[in-house]
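== Sequence, C-alpha cells ==
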Amino acid sequence: MRIARMAARISALATGALAAASPLIAAAAEPAQAAGERTLTLPGDGITIGFATVGALLAVFLVATLGYLYRRERNLDWEFQKPDAPHH
C-alpha cells in the first residue's frame, strides 16, 4: 500500500514538473530570433507593480493570520469543526 502511494506521488511530481517545464521546452524548440520578436518589454513601472502585488499578497496573508489567531484566542469553534466521536 505504501509503495502504491509513493508511486502515485512520484508520478504526480513528474507530471507536474513536465507541465511546468513545457513552456520552456516549447521556447527552446523555436529559433532564438523568432522567440525574441514575441517577447514583451517590461514597462517602466513594472518593478513597482511587482512590489505592490507582493505587498498586497502579504497583507492578505496577514489579515487571514490575525483572523485565525483571534478565532483561536476566543475559542470560536463550532460543533461541525470538531472531530467525530470514535465508534468504539
